[in-house]
Amino acid sequence: MKTTSCLRSTILLAGLLLAGAAAPTWALAVPTVSVIGDDGQPLPMTAGQAVTVRNVRAVVRLSYPPPGSNGRFTFDLVDATGKSASRGTSFTESCILQSGVAFDQNLQYHGNQTYQAVVKEYAPEDTSCATPTTTTTYGLTVAARVGIAPPTRPFVLSYPSVKGFPLTVTNNPGANLNEIHYALNGVVGPDGDLVAPFRFRLASLEDVGEATTTTQLDTTKPGRYTVVARAIDPSGSFSLLQPYRGDAASPWTPAITVVAKAPFGLTTSPVANFSDFTGPDYTLSVKVTFPGTPGTVSIGIARGKAGGTFRSLGTAKISSAGTITKRIRVVGNGKKPYRLRVSYKGSAFYLPGTQILRTSF
């Protein structure tokens, strides 16, 4: 009887030892996952939930508490379609042993959406990371955007160096380019972009951390311009000579209107130009600085280099090519100084102005 009891105890002890030998000698540690926020500070991420940032180059950081464990893991960022969205080195094929070292995964922006940081854990003997024991996802919503605001007053184009008008853009964190589309009397399409034809500008940001940038939009014509903008952050090669067609772009801003006006001026100022020099009848021929200036001008004449009263010589129409032609009669000996006054009352997008031309009759 005593022998039987001892035998049972021995069998029980052996069973416990065998059970202990079969139990895993490792345990999965709980990782800490965070994303570097728009202000450069880490934001904690929780499994199954999403945090929102604007940074199109967000960095997701994963670390296991030291000394970690013998388990292995892989780490990747994917977009909403399941496509990898990791910029540069991906940890999906590394099959890394857990340790106290932090691993940074850089986001490759595929547009505004919710990305997933996917962490898969494996047994230590699974050196090829073929069979995950757990799969955990952490959501990252990227809501990139830029901002543009209409000027508080019309912009006046310059002459003779016509440079268009400036546009200030509030940048998005991480983006290295702003794309701007603008058109005279432009129309916005269903996707928020302008309906062709339009002009475009890809403005490179020298410092991706700067809050705002000002870009010059080239144009020589006054009028009412429609403008939209967005941030882009392409990863591969693309042409700066055509609009961007990839998916690494934020939504278009709401359209704004910029009014550009042209000042009145004459290309021959301050000297009068005549197409003939046989008096007493002369043909005044001058051009406005901005072709397309509509309407008429009034012309007056006064003797001397200064002072005196201008006598009206009537009006003249501005041609579609911007030419003003006026036949005038002046009786003189060719040596007396005169001044011609050419005045314009202005129109919707052309400012009023007066030019004084010097000559002699």
UniProtKB/TrEMBL annotation:
What are the record keywords, sorted?
Signal
Origin organism is Paraconexibacter sp. AEG42_29
User: Which N-terminal residues, if any, form the signal peptide?
Assistant: 1-29
Q: Domain of life, per the record?
A: Bacteria
What is this protein's record name?
Uncharacterized protein
